[in-house]
Amino acid sequence: MNRFDQAKMLLRVKKIQKELQKEIITVEAGDGAVKVEITGEQKIKKIHIDPDFVDTDDIGQLERWIEDAVKEAIQTSQKVAAEKMQPMMGMLGGLGM
Domain containing 25 — which CATH number? Predict the structure, then answer.
């Protein structure tokens, strides 16, 4: 791979990174009790808790919903990032990565 190809590939990677920064993934848990918004870079933007679903006598349930939503959001975000980066993976091998 020559320097021109490497430069083109790096520009594509930077473009994908910018796309991932802008991509917002929303995940719900507890039938909508908890919503988590995360970027394609696995940065949590927002956690929303619907107070109508909160049972103050069972905070453990709310904690589980938050944990489940965050885990699913991260997994989904990682999957989206991997899908966007997939075409680049073969080219990265040419760089010795």
Answer: 3.30.1310.10
- Per the document, the length of the chain is 97
Number of domains in the chain: 1
Cα-trace Rg, the chain:
18
> Whole-angstrom Cα distance, residue 35 to residue 47?
6
| Strands, E assignment, the chain | 24-29, 34-39, 44-49
Helix residue ranges, H only, 23-58: none
Residue 80: pLDDT band with limits 50, 70, 90: very high
Containing structural domain, residue 7? 3-93
pLDDT of 43 strictly over 90: yes
